[in-house]
Amino acid sequence: MAIQYDERLREKEFGILDRYTKHGIAERFAELSEQRARVGKFYFRPPGGESWCDVILRLRSVVEELRRDYAGRRVLIVSHQVVVNCFRYLLEKMDEQTILETDRRGDVPNCGVTEFGFVDTPRGQRFELIRANFVVPLTQAGAPVTKAPDRPAGPK
pTM for this structure? Predict the structure, then answer.
């Protein structure tokens, strides 16, 4: 089993907003928070960072490489939330509204498994979602699924 590192699979670059919560961004970068609200999460690119569209663009070549070089083989990709969701967007041929709704329904859990397989169609093989955000083996072993609020509850 060969381990390969691929810079295309890194998490979305958050630029100057890196390590800030949604609340922190609104307080510290009100103008950027307003811009994000106007253009939407999918298209918003913070200074020095990436939009979801930017991530999707770099992942397109990964998908083509998987089809070309790894057909019929098992591949494990370890990455982060935005990358997982952007892979889903590409592999499931979602539209913007569908992937944003998928994202709104819940975070990709730490160590969650999202699995795809190939299915035959009249137009060739395509990826099909087998499971998303699967954490049962972890919870059965007693490992808690990490959940943290965007900011602590209570007075400001």
Answer: 0.82
